[in-house]
Design a protein that fits this description.
alpha+beta, 6-stranded antiparallel β-barrel, 6-stranded antiparallel barrel, 8 helices, 29% helix
Length: 410
């Protein structure tokens, strides 16, 4: 028998017929795997997106809280700067534009002829008669003074009065009434650190330039003629340059709160000084009527009492005030019997005369520093006025009444 009988007589299948079937099976299986992976991946992506959405909401919430905290910090900073618990936002562009347009016609350029050449400065119109306020150093030693108004009109000016000790001067012009637009004097004593101010002047001859800033400090002092200090000086970061001298420092109401005077050096940045309007108001009547201003005068040289001075002179612990180094001969303090130093020692690394009277009060008010004493006298006294000084002498308290004199002419 043949094998054909056992298996039956039928043709054999070729092995190549299985290939399409196998491919089909593999394709179906692959589709299933892909479908499963796709479903699984989609589930994972939905989970990731959900986590991302949650994180996004958390970040947005944190940003909102951070914005609130920053706003609160800014509010507290402004409140501290103002000193009154209120906030003062920086002036808007429109406010500065309106303020400039309101006041610029009142600011003039001053050009003076000197024996050594010419110099420039600024000034502002004070009253309807044509009086202009500027710095003494702008017009000092001038042989002629020319004033240029904003429309280009140039007129001659005459000197009315000046005070080298406060660096103030008043000049007068005969100009058309249409050009005479006075500015109002404000009260510099009301200024607060952080308050916005602007300066208008002619820096480097660039007419009618506005700069803005804030009051950086009050109660500063500057040296003037004879090393006498100008008191109550305003410090500002509004840009002040050569040529600004004599121009107004204005508050946001357009009132003059100071007259721009000085910068420490020509390379300084963010530091300028202005003589306060309260000083201008105090001196103007005398400058206009007499041409000068008489400053009250005590006639001493002194220094602050420090812990080193306290130890060296065996003063009561915690003593503050002014140690009199020297009393000017024939001056008011000398005539009242006040005493200067009697021996020289090194205190705080400086050679100092010790043994003199220590001034601790004036008219019952405590005077912690020499500057406090100078400010009190300048603000409140005139030549011929009496002042009661509380002193420490020979370890004990004593009152001395002094009749103030007139500061010598420079």
């Amino acid at each position: 028998m043949s094998d054909e009988w056992f298996y039956g007589h039928r043709p054999r299948r070729s092995s190549s017929n299985w290939v399409p079937l196998l491919i089909a099976i593999l394709i179906v299986a692959n589709v299933g795997v892909v479908a499963y992976n796709t479903i699984s991946t989609n589930e994972q992506m939905r989970g990731i997106r959900k986590q991302a959405d949650t994180l996004t909401l958390s970040v947005e919430s944190l940003n909102t809280e951070l914005t609130k905290v920053n706003a609160e910090i800014a509010s507290l900073r402004d409140a501290v700067n103002n000193g009154n618990g209120t906030t003062t936002p920086p002036p808007s562009d429109s406010l500065l534009i309106d303020l400039y347009n309101k006041t610029r016609d009142s600011v003039v350029m001053i050009v003076v002829t000197l024996s050594t050449g010419a110099a420039e400065g600024s000034g502002f119109i004070y009253d309807s008669t044509g009086r202009i306020i500027t710095n003494n150093h702008v017009v000092e030693d001038a042989t002629s003074i020319d004033v240029t108004f904003i429309d280009g009109t140039i007129v001659k000016a005459t000197l009315v009065g000046r005070d080298p000790y406060s660096d103030l001067a008043v000049i007068d012009v005969d100009a058309p009434a249409s050009l005479i637009k006075p500015l109002k004097l404000g009260k510099s004593s009301l200024l607060k650190v952080g308050e916005s101010v602007i300066a208008i002047g002619n820096p480097y001859g660039l007419a009618n330039t506005l700069t803005s800033g804030i009051v950086s400090a009050v109660g500063r002092q500057m040296d003037s003629t004879g090393n006498y200090p100008i008191v109550d000086v305003i410090q500002t970061d509004a840009a002040i340059n050569p040529g600004n001298s004599g121009g107004p420092l204005l508050n946001l109401d357009g009132e003059v709160v100071g007259i721009t005077t000085a910068i420490p050096t020509e390379t300084s940045r963010g530091i300028g000084f202005a003589v306060p309007s309260d000083t201008i108001s105090r001196e103007l009547p005398s400058l206009i009527t007499k041409g000068t201003y008489d400053h009250p005068y005590l006639g001493i040289q002194g220094r602050d009492v420090t812990p080193g001075v306290v130890d060296s002179m065996n003063l009561p612990a915690g003593t503050h005030g002014t140690l009199i180094i020297e009393v000017t001969s024939n001056g008011p303090a000398a005539e009242a019997g006040m005493r200067g130093g009697t021996r020289t020692e090194t205190v705080d690394g400086v050679s100092t005369k010790l043994g003199g009277d220590v001034i601790t009060s004036a008219d019952g008010a405590q005077m912690k520093t020499f500057y406090d004493l100078i400010v009190y006298i300048q603000r409140n006294k005139i030549p011929g006025a009496k002042i009661t000084l509380g002193i420490i002498r020979d370890g004990g308290p004593k009152d001395i009444v002094v009749t103030l004199g007139t500061r010598p002419k420079p």
